[in-house]
Amino acid sequence: MFSHILLPLDFEHQELYPRVMEAALKLCHPEGKIDLLYVNAARIHHAAAPLLSNDLLDNLDAAMKQQLQDFMSKEIPIARQGRLWLKRGVVYDTILAHAKRQQTDLIIMPASRPGAETYLLGSNSSRVVRHADCSVLVIR
Questions:
Q1: Which parts of the chain span the membrane according to its record (predicted)?
Q2: Could you tell me whether strands 135-139 and 81-88 are parallel, antiparallel, or unpaired per DSSP bridges?
Q3: CA dist 1 → 5, 19, 81 (Å)
């Protein structure tokens, strides 16, 4: 069992969330906590990044924080609820740094089937698996 689980969520793979939560709740120690993390990569990989205002990014962060709060209150029992985190940066780097800083024992990530683009660039989940200091479970 794991005492500190991190779920990096992007709300693009919501069809996998029931399986992610099932795994998290089964693997969480009775006194453990489950944290949620959203990484806003809007200024990192997008051609329109210079046009994105701080107000727009703040509004996006506020909307994502509300989604995380709703998800936590609906899906995670109160006794297991950890912290909500919103970060900006490169997704896999941010997940790895955050997990290390917070002494996470397990990262559980949803991942879609790889497309042609991931053979050249690699997916966030594959990079997290290769470089994490803790256990990683990828749900498909």
A1: none
A2: unpaired
A3: 10, 17, 16
